[in-house]
Design goal:
The complex is a heteropentamer, with one copy of chain A, two copies of chain B and two copies of chain C. Chain A is α/β, with parallel strands linked by helices. Helices cover about 45% and strands about 25% of the residues of chain A. In chain A, strands 1, 2, 3, 4, 5, 6, 7, 8, 9 and 10 form a ten-stranded mixed β-sheet that branches. The longest helix of chain A is centred in the first third of the chain and has 13 residues. Chain A is globular and about 55 Å long. Chain B is mostly helical. Chain B has ten helices and no strands. In chain B, helix 2 crosses helix 7, helix 5 crosses helix 6 and helix 9 runs antiparallel to helix 10. Chain B is globular. Chain C is built from eight helices and nine strands. A six-stranded mixed β-sheet of chain C has the order 5-6-7-3-8-9, sandwiched between helices. In chain C, strands 2-1-4 form a three-stranded antiparallel β-sheet, with helices on one face. In chain C, helix 2 packs parallel to helix 4. Classes of the chains: A alpha/beta, B mainly alpha, C alpha/beta. Chains in contact: A-B, A-D, B-C, B-D, C-E, D-E. The complex binds adenosine-5'-triphosphate (ATP) (2 copies) and magnesium ion (MG) (2 copies). One adenosine-5'-triphosphate (ATP) sits at the interface of chains E and C.
Chain lengths: ~260, ~230, ~240, ~230, ~240
């Protein structure tokens, strides 16, 4: 089927595309900061749908989104390898931190302030509450890979598999006085109302890379490939990278993301 | 608990801020839930009325099914509508995904069974009496239907109020088909869910209070109609 | 309006409630239907009004047989009258509005009926605040408002006081004589039947046991059941 | 659309798998929604009945408020209960957060207004007649209440069905106070929401179908009670 | 049971509906309340039953003045009887169950009442499937089932056929004589009042215009309104 001709002018008049992303980029406020500038620069409107990583990728597979901004590198590469996406670009990174109660019952800040493997081992040994995303998200995948590297499939009452978004999980850990693994951006944006604090950080295994991928335009004729490409070009541009690097400094005293487009 | 007090304060601040974004969200919420309630009413009241008065084979099962669909989880309704209107879905060419229209469609799926079920239940008791009266006084079919709706207004409006309550408060369906896109498909409930997820409890409660206040207004209007 | 009933049978739960072989309601007559409780009078009159389906048989209205009751020119007052949840006036106006009367004609007719029935002070009263007799009077006024050609009345004066009964009977007689309205009235009051009716149908367990001229049936009943009923004995067999 | 067919297939597979986890989720769903409906009924039916029969100053406003709380967004109800039972909250010492009990409490907040509103609406029409009849036949207050509930069973059960429908299908409140903890507070709706968010549409639909099937069973039972 | 009414006033929307200076219902008597539609008869009887609040005044029951109507030993049949949504039998049993009768006693009583009223075949019929007169009979049977000492009846035979009326009157008379049941019956049927009652109260526009021995009131009314009512004239002033 052909696109009906009368829709074509409308398309140009108000061009927009769907950006599927994870809740961390939306909830941290980064996209609210960036997108108005993007629209101003290009005249294109980005419609952000913030969902779980799994769903974001699924939306790409289905051709329901035009471009993805997610953080699950292995899954992203598989996505491109399957022909669902065109090409993956690094955009920015931040890092994961292990947060937990000030009292630190597992003693991780003593034993392993910058070694996540030792920290997880201590948590497992002491059977202190650990709240997991449990939702197959990028963060969850990262967490599982750490458990895997210490040869554990975590289970038991202390291991709380929540199946919820990052914000909710941080609140649950706060309420249960437990530990969790979170991306720094989400933690910082919520740090005000909670009592749990970063205990483990700076381990290179906690690196959290975000990537951008245009969905394969051959999926269906409704995909706005031009919009997607314009967004990718823009977010990898120097200007956007600079904005990313500055975002959060005024509010949190440090940037939430570190731009690293090549 | 401090968040609740703060929330009440913030609700006032939100309203008097005349912030364009927040008013946009409120208006879209109203538009979506009123539209879905309106269309659901138009669809459901005649069906519920007819069910209340006609007898046919399999009616018992049908009623039970309708009652069952009162339990339709909004997420499932949303997912269903999403699969139908998605780009590669059967109605993909209409380009409805992530639009207010899609949100209205999904809510209609949720609200119709509620209004049908409650209308049916009210009508079955005295619907036949009223229909017979209408006939004997010379009303044609259309006039009899209006007479029925007029006489059953207390029950029908309660059904509509219950349906509106469901529409305006649900988040699962509109989140999926609307996507909570800022400035485009963000409504009060999706905003609340997002704020809640961000840990901004007091603002979430503030928006919740605004939602309840609006609902109070709308229900006041419906209630006045009912008491006539 | 002439009405013919032919082999009319009505059953509930396998029980025969009404069974009329043949009955001819003559145009312009004033019929009384009498008989013990549960004889099937209300069921029969509702069937004549087309509100209860027949199990078998036929009912014809007017000269040309047709089987849809013409409610433009006929109506029924139920044994338990149902008033619309609005004022007395709006209840009486409803059938007139349906028939597109002018405001002026409606106003006149309502005023006249309310006055005749002694209901003037209740014109704007809500229907659910009326007494039992007032309710019945409003239902009757509503039915007579549009001057129907056929009036089916199910015990219309059961709760009405004797003085008002006299007025209502006068109104019915007038409608019957001046407007040639055919009237069927169900009543337990044999005196009323005698005063009012030209013809009588005596029903018993679903059958029209006896029918004919009112004087004849009341004074010289041919059937022993009719006779016993008239003498006021219990009919439980 | 293929997901829907797949979902139906998967629903069967899920049920015949006798997977302990899935049956745990189903049982917990039933427990939470039935318990909340049960307690809501006990609270709401007497209130709705009393409101339907008594007149007092400010009643109009109260009714409107109750109707308004039919629109209480589940997320707000959940948040409210969470703030009360959280560690720092007034009932923090009871350690209710992320327990099924908390989920029941939150659902009661949502369901009570629905049952009160619909019961009130039904009772107001003939409640007084029935109460008067009870009195004249010698029933004491308790017996009169039972008589009322018995005679109003059609309306009350429809209200309960609507309330149960809301309880079993809502996700916002149980998600917040329960936390969707695997093996502990995960119920069908939170599981559906999670699966949906993970992009596993067909499994989400499968669980949704199971939920509807259960609801059909429960409604069947309530419906039979009603028809007595 | 003796009943005293003292300065009883009832108003609706500022309109005085009932106004009784003094009225004494004598224990063991059989009262007829008559009067035109809207006179306030139903309102008065409901006030006597304590179901309508008074605007002012007092009602006393029995020897010692107390103001709560003793429903263990009295009851009221409404003008529009309400039957419970269940079978005829269960309707009649309900007041007996409340009073803790034995199964055997209940069984006997129900059978007797159903037989007396010619309702035996309807024992297991659902109440909403009854005819108008059958409904009224069940309501009456239910009220009489527990042999109350005071029976308030609001037009209980309005829809009942003459033969059954005779039986019901006999039952009422029997209850009155053998069980000393005080009866108040509202009726529009002056013949019935004459046959049945010992005392008559004539109501008009809320006032008990005349009361006394039934023969006296009917044959020698002292008030012109009563006289006109008895003569069957219209009372619209
Ligand atoms: N839905 C029903 N199911 C079973 N029986 C019914 C139903 N409706 C009516 N009946 C029975 O049919 C018979 C006739 O009823 P109908 O109302 O026609 O009597 P009627 O002659 O008008 O009596 P009444 O003088 O008491 O008003 C009654 O015995 C009644 O119990
Ligand atoms: N809620 C109400 N509001 C206003 N007026 C009322 C209300 N209830 C009753 N009335 C009026 O009070 C008057 C007395 O009513 P009531 O029912 O006592 O009359 P009644 O003597 O029993 O008449 P009937 O013989 O017609 O049954 C009637 O005129 C009626 O319209
Ligand atoms: Mg009848
Ligand atoms: Mg009365």
């Amino acid at each position: 089927t052909r696109t009906p001709p009368e829709e074509a002018p409308e398309q140009i008049e108000n061009p927009s595309f769907i950006l599927a992303t994870t809740t961390s980029t939306q909830d941290s406020g980064l996209l609210d900061d960036l997108l108005p500038v993007f629209t101003e620069d290009t005249g294109i409107e980005a419609k952000v749908v913030a969902v779980g990583t799994g769903k974001a990728l699924q939306m790409g597979v289905d051709g329901e989104a035009d471009v993805l901004l997610v953080h699950a590198k292995a899954a992203e590469e598989a996505f491109v390898a399957n022909g669902d996406g065109l090409k993956r670009f690094d955009v920015m990174y931040n890092d994961f931190v292990v947060i937990g109660p000030k009292s630190d019952p597992a003693g991780v800040s003593e034993k392993a302030p910058n070694n996540v493997i030792d920290a997880f081992t201590a948590i497992r040994e002491t059977q202190t509450a650990f709240v997991s995303r449990g939702d197959d998200s990028g963060t969850h995948k990262k967490e599982l890979s750490i458990w895997d590297s210490i040869g554990t499939i975590p289970s038991g009452d202390w291991y709380v598999s929540a199946g919820k978004g990052m914000g909710d999980v941080i609140q649950m850990a706060n309420e249960m006085l437990g530990y969790t693994l979170t991306d720094r951006a989400t933690y910082l944006s919520m740090a005000q109302g909670i009592e749990i604090i970063p205990l483990v950080e700076g381990d290179e295994r906690l690196f959290n890379q975000y990537g951008v991928i245009a969905v394969n335009p051959e999926k269906n004729e409704m995909i706005n490939a031009e919009g997607a490409q314009a967004f990718i070009d823009w977010i990898l541009s120097e200007k956007a990278q600079e904005l990313i690097g500055e975002y959060g400094i005024s509010e949190y005293g440090e940037p939430l993301f570190v731009p690293n487009a090549k | 608990m401090g968040e609740i007090i703060l929330g009440i304060e913030e609700a006032f601040l939100l309203l008097i801020s005349f912030n364009k974004e927040i008013y946009g969200i409120i208006l879209l919420s109203l538009y979506v839930s009123l539209a879905s309630t309106f269309f659901s009413t138009i669809i459901a009241v005649p069906i519920g009325t007819a069910l209340g008065m006609r007898n046919f084979k399999g009616k018992g099962i049908l009623i039970r099914l309708i009652y069952t669909f009162m339990s339709l989880p909004p997420v499932i309704a949303g997912l269903f509508v999403f699969l139908v209107i998605m780009r590669k879905g059967p109605l993909g060419h209409l380009r409805l995904s992530f639009t207010p229209t899609a949100m209205i469609l999904a809510q209609i799926c949720i609200v119709v069974p509620i209004i049908v079920g409650l209308t049916y239940n009210g009508v079955k008791e005295k619907g036949n009496t009223i229909r017979d009266l209408g006939k004997t006084l010379g009303a044609n079919n259309r006039q009899t239907l209006f007479l029925l709706i007029y006489e059953m207004r207390i029950i029908i409006l309660a059904a509509v109020i219950a349906g509106f309550g469901r529409a305006v408060s649900e988040v699962g369906a509109v989140m999926i088909v609307g996507g909570n896109i800022k400035g485009h498909t963000r409504v009060m409930t999706t905003y609340i869910a997002m704020l809640q997820n961000m840990g901004d409890y007091s603002k979430a409660i503030a928006v919740g209070i605004v939602l309840l206040a609006l609902s109070f207004l709308i229900n006041g209007i419906l209630f006045n109609l009912q008491q006539r | 309006m002439n009405i013919y009933l032919e082999n009319v049978i009505k059953e509930y739960e396998g029980k025969r409630i009404v069974h009329i072989d043949e009955l001819h309601i003559k145009n312009g007559a004033l019929y009384g239907f009498v008989g013990p409780n549960g004889a099937g009078k209300s069921t029969l009159i509702k069937m004549i009004a087309g509100l209860e389906p027949l199990n078998s048989g036929n009912i014809y209205y007017g000269h040309k047989p047709k089987s849809n009751p013409p409610f433009e020119i006929m109506t029924l007052v139920f044994q338990k009258p149902y008033l619309l949840r609005t004022t007395v006036e709006k209840n009486i106006l409803y059938p007139l509005r349906l028939r597109g009367w002018t405001e002026k004609a409606m106003e006149e007719r309502v005023t006249e009926l309310l006055k005749d029935m002694g209901l003037s002070e209740f014109r704007n009263q809500k229907s659910w605040k009326l007494s039992g007799g007032e309710t019945q009077k409003v239902a009757l006024a509503r039915a007579m408002s549009f001057r129907p050609k056929l009036l089916l009345l199910d015990e219309p004066t059961a709760n009405i006081d004797p003085s008002t009964i006299a007025i209502i009977e006068k109104m019915l007689r007038k409608a019957n004589q001046e407007e040639k309205t055919t009237v069927i009235i169900i009543t337990h009051n044999l005196q009323q039947a005698k005063r009012l009716c030209s013809d009588l149908v005596f029903m018993h367990r679903g059958n029209a046991v006896e029918h004919g001229d009112v004087e004849k049936v009341l004074n010289h009943p041919t059937h022993s059941l009719t006779q016993r009923f008239i003498e006021g004995e219990l009919i439980v067999d």
